[in-house]
Every structure is written in structure tokens, then in C-alpha cells.
Amino acid sequence: MYARENRALKDLIVARGHARGTDVWALRDVSFSVEPGHAIGLVGRNGSGKTTLLRLLSGIVKPTAGRVAVGGRVGSLLELGAGFHPELTGRENVYLNGSIHGLKRADIRERFDEIVAFAGLEDFIDLPVRTYSSGMYMRLGFAIASHVEADVLLLDEVFAVGDEAFQRKCFGKIFEFKQRGGTIVFVSHDAGAVERLCDRAVLLSEGRVAFDGPTHEVVLAYRRLLAGERDPEERAAGLKEWGGEVARVENVRLLADDGSQRSQLLAGEPFAIALDLAADTPIQPPRLGWELRDDAGVLVAAGAVSTSGLGWNGGTQALPLTFRSERPPFADGRLHLRLDVADERGETQYHSIDDALVFVVYPADEGRGLVRLEGTWS
Asked: Where are the alpha helices (DSSP H) in the chain?
């Protein structure tokens, strides 16, 4: 790296002795192997070298030292839609992008209908891609890349884009590839996705291998790495849970009035949220914070409670908690519950979970909107 990124030819000749750069090692002493038909996850903080490692495996960049060997054809989903020309139609970009991935024109023609159907763009395939929404753009990029007959698939945060239905479709396609015996190297901040897809994972820290082993153990180590942060930047890329070493929330569930576990409610129906608060060693009574947001991320309700008044004492290591709402005001919508466990003053974060619970409220009458406004007309 150089102090001045854009250097003129004159600078290189005149100031050759003064314009010295500094070496930055994105990866160093990283060594691992993946057997054919297996899936491995790469996790770590932003800047730990995950994407650089995928670029090395795909052949986009060459290692300064060491050796990278990949057997078979490599399919890369590092940046969905890379190589699209905005003025060309979707149809023309399918052929262009397919050729970039190494497909022959006859192969693309044979799979064209399947690619378009997967992307759900039958009515828009002959329009210029500059007229596409970002979701349409991503769907077409994934559809092309996922229909390449590859032996090794490199995935970089592909589930952080698109809507929920598109993400499920992506996951189904990747599971199908894995069941056919394909090899997968998967980068994601979504620990749940890594655990569903991979049996083994590697934790990278500052360009080095910090831990290599079973996925669950690696995910726990990754969460501990992020412990103490209220809002880590990795959340934007799909991180849902972090911390949990000192104290943690477990077994979160939504209960109906009769005690049955639910994932949906009718408007006005009483409900309870039950959870267990646990600590491996005795600690002072922790504080539990909560937030309810809608699908758009708008804060609907929030609060916090100290466990000192709920039965936690110096020796407590497990405490079941329940929050009851007899007349909830919600009318219609999907709600996301976030939970935070911190010390009594809220200064040290122990455990945080986004989407600890996601539930749907269905309207029970003519009412619309997120909340029910009670009142009478006269």
C-alpha cells in the first residue's frame, strides 16, 4: 500500500526513492484442505481475509507465497451480477455472463429457459438490465452462476441479498449441488446458515487460522470474538448472534394462552414469550433488554428489565423468565424480537441475538396496519 494511491509516471521516476509502499498481509500461514463432496465454512470478522481466500481459490489473484490447488471446474458466486452490461438485455447478459463462467453457447441455449424460470424474470428477460431492480439483478446473477456445471462452488455472502423467498430458493439449489457430490467453500456471517450447510469450519482472525474444527465449536469461538459489542458492523452482512460466554439466552419460544408453542397469532390474542437465562459461572444479576421490530426494521416496542427483581442472586446460574401480554395491540404483520443480555448498568454486553423470535400476527377483523387502535365512534 502507498500513501498516494494514484501515482503519475513522473512521481515514479522523480520520487522513486521516496515513494516506498508498506506490505499488508491479507493472509499468512493459512493451510487447509477440503475433500470432494464436503462443505467447509469460513467465518471471521470483516477484514480477516475470507473474501481474499476465495479469490485465491478461484484464481482471480495469485498468492505471494505458497500454493493453491483446486481440482475440477470452479463456480464462483463472489459478486452476483459481476460482468453484466447495463445496456444489454437480460437475455444477452445471460449469454455474456455464461461465457464468462466458461459455458459454450450451445450449453447456455440448452439451460436458458431453466435459468430464466429460476430467476423469475420471464416477463422482463428482453428488457435492458439497467431497468431491473436490485433484487431482479441479483436473482439473474445467482441463476446463471448456480447453473454452471461446477465441481467446486465458492460462495461469498450470497444469502445476505434478496428477499426471504429468494434466499430459500438459493439454499435449496446449493443443497441440491451438495447432494450431487459437489464441494463447497462458504463464507457467511450468518452462523445458522453455516451450521446448516457445513460440517466443518475455519475461523480466520487477522489473516491467520484461529480455529479449525467442527462447525458448532468454530461458531462459538466466533461469537466469543465479537462478545462485548452492541452493534458490530458484521450485522449488515447477516450476523444474527454474538457473545454468550459469560451469560446467554437459551430456548426462546412463543406461547399461546393455553401454553402451546406457536409461531403465529390472531390480532388481540394473548401470548407469552418464555426463555431461559444462563451463566456458566456466578455473576451479578444481568439486565435483559428487548426490541420488537417489523419487517422494515421500524422499532415497534422496546424495554429492559433487571433480573435482580426476578429471582437472580449471586449464585444463580439458570433462571427461566416469561413475559406475558394479555391484550397485545398488534393487528397485522411480522414481528422480529431482539434480545440483549448485559451487566446491570448496561455497559458490558454479554449476549445478543437478532431474530431470537420471529412471529406473524394475522388480522381478526376488518382492522389493518401494525397496531389495533381501540376506541368508539359516536
From this structure: 9-14, 50-58, 90-100, 105-119, 134-146, 164-179, 191-197, 215-225
